[in-house]
Sequence to fold (730 residues):
Amino acid sequence: MNDPEYTAVLANVVKHFKSGPVLVRAVDGVSLQLPRGKMVALRGPSGCGKSTLLNLFGALDRPDSGDIVVDGIDVGRLKGGDEVDYRRRKVGFVFQMFNLMPSLTALENVMLPMELAGGMGPAARKQKAESLLERVKLAPDRYTRRPTRLSGGEQQRVAIARALANDPALILADEPTANLDSTTGGQVISLLRRLADDKRTVVVATHDNSIAQKADVVISMSDGKLMGKWAEEDSEAESARVSS
Amino acid sequence: MTIFRWAWRALIRAPLRGSLLVGVLAVSIGLALIMITVDGAFAQRLDDIRASVGTDITVRPAGSFGGGVFGFGGPRGGNGPGGALATPTPAPSDADDDSQPTITDDDLQKLTSIPNVASITRVVTDVYQGDTITAGTVTPPGNGGQGGPTFRGPNGQGFSPPIIVTGTDDPNTLSSLATGDTEITSGRSFTTDDAGKNVAVIGQAIADANSLAGGDTFTLNNVSSDGTETGTTTTLTVIGIYSTGTTFGDNGIALPIETERTIFAHTDTVDQAIVKVNNVDNVDQVSNDVKNALGTDKADVTTAESAFTAISSPLSDAKSSSQVGLIAALVASAIIILFSIGIVARQRVREIGILKAIGASNWNVVSQLGIETAFIAIGAALVGAIATFPLAQLVADGLVSDPTTGTGGPATNVGGPGGGGGGFFVAGAGGAANGTNSLLGSVDVAVSPSVFAYALAIALGLALIATVIPAWYVGRVRPAEVLRYE
Ligand SMILES: Nc1ncnc2c1ncn2[C@@H]1O[C@H](COP(=O)(O)OP(=O)(O)O)[C@@H](O)[C@H]1O
Ligand SMILES: [Mg+2]
Fold:
């Protein structure tokens, strides 16, 4: 079940949207393997299907067809409690718009996934949240601030800390720097880079080439399909070559 | 308990949204509560009125209705709520010509065997024309115009309003005859021991005009059957004084029926009989039995229901406006609430998406929203319930703004130009209208603490609705949909 080499394996994943009379082939037959402990850049122009693919990874949406297997879990067919559990423990999401809970402080935002997952006392949660915020280099005087009183860069750091709260194997970051200036964006990317160095698999969707340069693997996407060598039929062999 | 903490935290950290929702909800809950309270008060008052008059059946000789005291060539007194309130419109004895059917004690005896009849009270009424006592001055309401403070007879001469002498088995029955409530203000009423004795319970106006008090005596001229005075008198002792609240109603004398018959030379006829039924539900049945026993050519049988309808119609109107108000309040609340939910939901769809994306179950999200809503609804219920206390009476008073006052005043003027007896009738109607005023004015809205229970029920109902809809939404929404941005 648990493939030691790959965090995730996608086979022929399809996700189409009906936009009025138009059928949008957001993800149109994608097959790939995500090597474990690497930073993967998912690159492509706006509207090519990056977010859709990331959402499928994170069980924020379901594919029309095809298989998505993450750590042995058939993500595309998760239901009810299993789906909730997957979102809690297996993946951590970092969004372009940060998406922190507005009523919670930075610290509370990081503790929230732990509270949802349960199994940790309040003191332990607080301690872990503080250490995570320290790790993303948020100034301690910001811990008790709510998102509206944090800068974009600070909010994104909190979001990364929150994504790490339950130690997921897979971090999914959808254009995490798009709303940040380049310096702050660079800092966020370094943070993500370091997570990959700590043997976590990090997928960053971006249309920014400079970010792609920091990645171990770059996957290009266009019109819902993977480009270049990823587009070839025998994707298993290709990905093996790339990841080695 | 974590959920409670989350909900509470979300609430107090968005105090503006919270208090706005509480405020909006409080207004609608308060409206609903006020209307429920007012409606209940009206219903209670209607029940009270029904309870007091509802079991009475009035039996009169056929055709006598309206040919009565107020006649004097003027319009009939029986129309409209005011006229109906002035009910006594009894046929005076001089109207008892041969063509008129009569009701006798023997006839009434037949009624005693009808099931569910609780009591039968005989009533004989006459206008006293003698000069041994004088009537109190009636001041017409809306006093103005040619009607003037004193009444004019058919010839334009001033005359005292007629003194109505009523003989009855039970003077308590007078309360259902007179306008408003008849109250013994001093002395006592009759007892069965007084039957046939020369005692009287007199109206306040008579007492004042003749300086009579309890224990005093006065005389009435005896009258023969053709209406002329016989030259003999009867001396009566005042045992009590009653008041109806109107000078008109107080220009009367109540006697034991046998005494009245002796003075006015009646044998065994009655002008009307009040049949009391043991239960409101049996009134129709008894009424039919009475009609069958007496024959419709002999007797007019009216249930108090018609009088009740007349008395209560302004109140019923007010009640239906309060019900319309209630419905309007509920519809308004529903719209406001759905609107607020809409705003909140829109605002919070993203939060719901985030929560689900980071691993909140549907239950986590729904229970948090539900508890938040419940907090808001309960807060609003409290505010609304508290506001009900001072406001309910105001609303009730506003709804019972009296519809008869407007007609009472101008009507008085109508009597003037005619110069005739019509003026008197109108004064009677005016007095009756006043009676209606005081009757309706007495709708007392007692806000019971149970409004809190109602408020809570409404609040929890709303909270439930306001949670079920989002719950349905939360259950089916996919985070990807709501977290999209273009
Ligand atoms: N829920 C949706 N309904 C309709 N169309 C959608 C939906 N989500 C995405 N799309 C469309 O799918 C395509 C891919 O979108 P997306 O994955 O967001 O692209 P990217 O993230 O690469 O910019 C776009 O044309 C977008 O408009
Ligand atoms: Mg995107």
Observations:
- The longest helix of chain A spans residues 182-197.
- The radius of gyration of chain A is 18 Å.
- Residues 233-244 of chain A have pLDDT under 50 and may be disordered.
- The helical segments of chain A are 50-57, 80-89, 106-117, 122-135, 152-163, 182-197, 209-214, 235-243.
